[in-house]
Design brief:
272 residues; alpha+beta; five-stranded antiparallel β-sheet; 5 helices; 27% helix; disordered N terminus
């Protein structure tokens, strides 16, 4: 019996040793397992913004009431400009050519895709490459032009794409879609015939009863051929303003001057 107990005790002790050895080996393997470095993280959005802030972008320009700008939409309805640096088309607001209308005379408006600001907004890199292509819309516009310059007429003299003059297929006319903003369409595929309020340097395109004038057929909303815009970077339009009563100052300035004159007259009366 003692021999049996001795054997059993020896077996229990041996199992304890083996178990202890096994635990020690497992712990040793964990302690000697190589440490893997965390993968390098991609730049965060905040870091990208910081990088962008180190680049000196060109001035982003907004057209104010009474100023003329060039509205344009590319063939994909992506690259566009509507006179704003915050709304649709802000990418072409950098270095946009905006004209202060100060009276009858010649002015030029433009858009430019060869800017750091445009390249960054289009590609995410100020040095990236992207060239607009195609044309869905082109017009010279003046916010509040109908109220500030009643009867103003815009006659397009030339359209240039990257310095090359584009053929004018028809004459342009001046009109308004909302009775507030003045425009002259250079390419608007959605307009089949001149607007009812269309006017030109030759006169109104329609009589009071809606009868087309003898020269109405020479005008359209498709002055240029969109094929000339298969690829473009800078687009310029030069136009002549007429119908502003011999070159009067903009309505906003005239209103300010009138207010100042009224104040001066009131002060003079008070002194008397």
């Amino acid at each position: 019996m003692k021999r049996i107990l001795a054997c059993l005790l020896t077996g229990v002790m041996l199992c304890g040793v083996l178990t202890a050895c096994g635990k020690k080996d497992n712990n040793s393997a964990a302690e000697t397992e190589p440490v893997t470095e965390a993968p390098t993280e991609a730049p965060t959005e905040a870091q990208e913004v910081t990088q962008a802030e180190t680049v000196a972008f060109e001035e982003a320009r907004d057209a104010k009431p009474g100023q003329a700008y060039l509205a344009i939409v590319d063939g994909q309805w992506w690259i566009q400009y509507w006179g704003s640096s915050t709304k649709d088309g802000y990418m072409l607001s950098y270095d946009a050519g905006i004209a202060d209308i100060t009276g009858n005379g010649t002015y030029t408006v433009s858009v430019n895709a060869d800017t750091k600001g445009f390249r960054y907004d289009a590609t995410g890199d100020p040095s990236g490459e992207y060239t607009p292509s195609g044309l869905n819309f082109l017009a010279v516009m003046i916010p509040e032009g109908e109220t500030m310059y009643p009867g103003i007429v815009l006659t397009v003299d030339s359209v240039k794409v990257d310095g090359n003059e584009v053929e004018l297929k028809t004459k342009n006319y001046t009109s308004s879609d909302d009775g507030v903003e003045t425009r002259t369409n250079l390419y608007n595929p959605y307009v089949e015939s001149p607007a009812d309020d269309g006017r030109s340097a030759e006169g109104a395109l329609y009589s009071a009863d809606g009868t087309p004038s003898d020269f109405c057929s020479g005008y359209s909303a498709k002055v240029v051929d969109p094929s000339a815009f298969s690829s473009w970077t800078k687009v310029e339009v030069t136009f002549t303003v007429s119908g502003m009563d011999g070159g009067a100052a903009p309505a906003a300035e005239s209103a300010d001057a009138a207010e100042e004159n009224a104040e001066e007259s009131a002060e003079a009366s008070a002194e008397e």
